[in-house]
Amino acid sequence: MDRPFKADVQARGGGARPPESGFAGSPALPSFIETRGVSKFFSGVRVLTDVSLSFGSGEVHGLIGENGAGKSTLIKILSGLYRPEEGTLLVKGEPVVIRSPSHAAELGVGVIHQEFDLIPQMTAAQNMYLGREPAGRFGVVDFAALYADTRRLLEEVRLSVEPTALVRTLSVEQKQLLAIAKALSWDAGLIIMDEPTAALNGAEIDRLLDIVRRLREGGRSVIFISHHMEEVLGISDRVTVLRDGRVIATRPSSEISESEAVRMMTGKERIQKRLRSGIEKEKTKSSELPVMSVKNFSHPKHFHDVSFSLRKGEIVGIVGLEGQGQRQILRALYGDMRASGEVRIDGVPAALKSPADALRRGVVFVPEERKEEGLCLRLDIEQNLTLSTLKERSAAGVLKFGRAAREDVRRSMSDVKLSTDDPSRMAYSLSGGNQQKVVIAKCLACKPKVLLFSEPTRGIDVGAKEDIYLLIRAFADGGSGIVVVSGDISELLLVCDRILVVHAGRITEEFEAENADREHIMRAMWGLGTEEAKEAL
Ligand code: ADP
Ligand code: MG
Fold first, then answer.
1. Å from CA of 116 to ligand 2 middle
2. Mean pLDDT, residues 40-59
3. In the Cβ-directed half-sphere of 502, how many Cα atoms lie within 13 Å?
4. pLDDT in tens, 121-135
5. 226: Cβ below 6 Å to ligand 1?
6. Ligand 1, residues 35, 42, 246: which to mutate, most atoms within 8 A of Cβ?
7. What pLDDT, on a 0 to 100 scale, did the predictor assign at position 23?
8. CATH classification number, 1-108+188-195+220-270, choose in 3.40.710.10, 3.40.50.300, 1.10.3210.10, 3.30.465.10
9. Which of 68, 83, 161, 486 is the most exposed place for a label (fewest CB within 10 A)?
10. CA of 483 to the centre of ligand 2 (A)
């Protein structure tokens, strides 16, 4: 692991970097790879324009941008899959033409693709050295050396599996670590990670970020792509924002806020204004009967004495640390879990014995696990959208498909701003944002009185997030009452009228979103008073 600049990097430690002086477009550390004036066209359409970036040895460089901004195209250029029509690439200061992925590998560029490029039927060690096994005398594979090397590299990424373990028996996290170890096995100076945390849970993400820091300490260059702004800004030394194939800015991560980054990515500030104007409209309405009221709602294990009411047109957020009972409250409200206490819908007591029962009373749940609960991935958009209205259309026991139904489908698709207008597109082929929009369109078709959202934008890119916020606001403007459970405080501050904090199964505080202060909410989430909080923070 004797890489140049190691001493320099370690002396600085693995934590946040001091702000660099001078031009933010060049790293404080010597660059491992650099693009100068790179442009890329696909059948005459320009998708990258004049991209000049440098990625330092010992630097974690975040790359952010909406879908279609050109991130993957740039990565494919660095990894030898595409050649740019204009501009040059430099590796350690030398101009190079990267001819192929294997040439990129020789130059020290390692890419951890989302599919990892591993062969499931082979062992960890075989995958690491595929096609270039360390040879002993007479050209025979030297297994002792192969296993020893493999062990050393697996240790480096803290992956505790045997070199002889079959890849198909590994978890997603383990496969990802193996892919990183593989890149280390040919001593990659640059490791590119495209959405590496998308399929990982919280603890796994922490472990991965730890590995990223160690790679940096070892003097490697890392390009980190993720839709999670907090994550990117937290791990990167510098971050580059791409929009429409252009570099909008490269900044030290410590000098850019999440909202600023989002603004640069989308180039729109309208969203906030539009959402706010919705809230104003809602305020001018007189205090109508609550569409839903919940009183002394309790579950022996998960939550206690929960009371709140929800007016028509109102969006109420529920926030808490993981495992405080907020998800179970939502489940009980759509009849998937029994609880004591009273729920009234439009003033009428409603027992909500099952999800079907809740649906009949106009309570609709939009789950966070779109792929498991909300959508049939192997059906197309039209089939997904017509499933929820099946009953209406089978009035006389005969299903009515055809023109009218198809018109409805097209209208729903454009109502939720799906990026495709082809109803025969299969659900699995859509992006996360579009899948969520199909789920929302399904719910719209049920004409709900109350909509319960769980993590409405988890894993969705910024542009689609904004569309979804506007859709939620539009539901509210249409007279539905909405409850959003989310761990993302910024999201709740943006879309909600009121925010309830749940701690240890109880609603401990309530905030008007407009006057709420983020830090205040955090403290309440931790169950801390002001003084204790100051010590803890
Ligand atoms: P990102 O990874 O930021 O979402 P991409 O690099 O995948 O963006 O895409 C950038 C633009 O280039 C998009 O408009 C996309 O449609 C287009 N594009 C990407 N790959 C191809 C291709 N092979 N042929 C034609 N257009 C492409
Ligand atoms: Mg991409």
1. 15
2. 92
3. 29
4. 889 988 888 766 666
5. no
6. 42
7. 39
8. 3.40.50.300
9. 83
10. 32
